[in-house]
Amino acid sequence: MPIVLRLDVILAHRKVRSNVLARAIGITDANLSLLKSGKVKGVKFETLEAICTYLRCQPGDILEYQPEQPPDVHSDELKRAG
Predict the structure, then answer these.
(1) Which of 3, 10, 12, 73 has the greatest count of CB atoms below 10 A from its CB?
(2) Domain of 45?
């Protein structure tokens, strides 16, 4: 997925434990763990706002866009030719 969650990095910089953040923003430790690992399809703006408020950061500090690389045209051509 081209959106990468960097919540673990911000937590480390702020020296905040996951369970403390989860309790502070009203979500379960399990849900925060899923969010940190990127194993979620989305996040509510309400949750994102609560995280940013508690950690005093911007959404862009937590979310990063990494476009997927298109297949290499040359390597595809070589596979078909070979």
Answers:
(1) 10
(2) 3-81
Most confident of 27-31, 36-40, 77-81: 27-31
Number of domains in the chain: 1
pLDDT at 2: 85
Q: What is the DSSP string of the chain?
A: --EEE-HHHHHHHHT--HHHHHHHHT--HHHHHHHHHT--S---HHHHHHHHHHHT--HHHHEEE-PPPPPPHHHHHHHHH-
CATH code of residue 66: 1.10.260.40
| Cβ burial, residue 27 (10 Å; 0-12/13-18/19+) | middle
3-state class (DSSP) for residue 69: coil
